[in-house]
Structure formats: C-alpha cells, structure tokens
Write a structure and sequence with these properties.
Elements: H1 5-15, H2 22-35, H3 52-56, H4 62-74, H5 83-89, H6 103-112, E1 118-121, H7 128-134, E2 142-145, H8 146-149, H9 156-166, E3 174-177, E4 191-194, H10 207-215
Parallel strand pairs: 1-2, 3-4
Helix pairs in contact: 1-2, 1-5, 4-5, 6-10
Length: 216
C-alpha cells in the first residue's frame, strides 16, 4: 500500500475545515514528506532530539507511533490549526491509503492455488480493520505486526514468528516486500523478493509473485 501525499494533505486540511488549492497542498505535502510527517515515504534525514525516542520505538508502541509522526508533522510551519493531528488520523483510515492495483488479484490467485499468505509489518497500530475494508483479510492466513511481537524487521525473529503462525517451513517461504528491511527474512532461512515502490494507483510488480510461487 502507498499514499498520494497531496491527496493526503488535502483531505487532512479538509478535516480541519480548510480547503487547500492544488499548489499549496503540493508545497505543504513536499515539506511534510521531507520532515517525515507523512507515512509511507522516505525516512527523514534528521530527527529532532525530543522525538528521537518515539521515532526509535514507533513500530513497537502505539503511543510512540502517534507521537513520532504527529511531532514530525508539527515541525513544518503551517497556518492550519490541528493539521498535524489530522494528518496522523488518516493513518488509521482505510481510504487514506491506496492498495497497489495488482495486490488483490495476486493474493486472490495465490490463495486459490492453496498458497498460504501472511502479512509481516513494521507498524505501531492494528492494521486488521484496514485489511477488512480492503477485502484482504479473508486471503490472509496470518498477520504478524511488530508492535504485537516486540520484533522489528529486519530481525529474523519476526519472520520466524510468521512462519510459525503459518505452520510453514522457512526454506519454503518467500518474503515479498518493498524495503531492504524485508530482506532480513533471508536470515530466517526464507527467500526474499524486494519489489520497487510505485506511485499511488500504479502496480508495483506483485503479479510476479504468483508465477514464482508456481515454480516452487
């Protein structure tokens, strides 16, 4: 899943009762992304000292996750009261994110073929309600979240937890992700396929997974 930063900021501003034109929303989104106040974008180059602990623990505790991202968003000068909090609230809404268009067809085909599917995520909140709304929950045999297990990718332990939940042999398991942290599955004895992130609304090559699974 990914986000459209401009749409995200525009919607958050609307939640605060402010209508942003495209130009202002784009500038604000760029600044927020650079500061690290938007999820699903590159990590900020600098974390302000007061937020360092929350940032380090963002994928282990719900309050740290909220405090880190809200705090980073608040570092961007803005004349919209409450925008930092409104931006974070969209993290918890299914319509704030965009699922890659090839995700549902690929997972559906894998599930129909009898392939066990698990989700392993570095995250500081429960994504199950979002998966429900996206129609992905029925296709998942296991959901392993860092804030519930106490392990963060690339730690091999979180991948082993997922394999155990799936009752799967790591040697017969493939981790598919879009960050280098996902390659930590190799240390757990799994194989790993890292696909590139794609702009919102565009496929990112997940369909290749189905063809690879058929060869195993």
């Amino acid at each position: 899943m990914t986000i459209d930063p401009v749409a995200w900021v525009t919607a958050a501003a609307a939640d605060c009762g402010v209508t942003l034109d495209r130009g202002k929303a784009t500038v604000l989104a760029d600044r927020l992304a650079t500061a690290g106040g938007l999820p699903g974008v590159d990590k900020p180059a600098r974390i302000p000292p007061p937020l360092a602990e929350s940032w380090a623990n963002r994928d282990l505790y719900e309050d740290a996750h909220r405090h880190a991202f809200t705090g980073l968003a608040a570092t961007v000068p803005c004349d919209i009261p409450g925008l930092a909090s409104a931006i974070y609230e969209r993290v918890l809404k299914a319509d704030g994110w965009q699922v890659y268009p090839d995700a549902l067809p690929t997972l559906t085909a894998l599930y129909a073929a009898g392939v066990k599917i698990g989700i392993v995520s570095n995250i500081g909140f429960d994504i199950r309600p979002l998966l429900d709304e996206w129609g992905l929950s029925p296709l998942c045999d296991a959901i392993v979240l860092s804030y519930e297990t106490g392990y963060i990718k690339p730690d091999a332990k979180i991948f082993l937890k997922a394999c155990a939940a799936l009752k799967a042999d790591p040697a017969q398991t493939m981790m598919v992700g879009d960050t280098q942290a996902d390659a930590g599955a190799i240390d757990a004895g799994c194989t790993a396929l890292i696909v590139s992130r794609a702009p919102a609304g565009q496929p990112n090559g997940l369909s290749r997974v189905y063809h690879l699974a058929k060869q195993r």
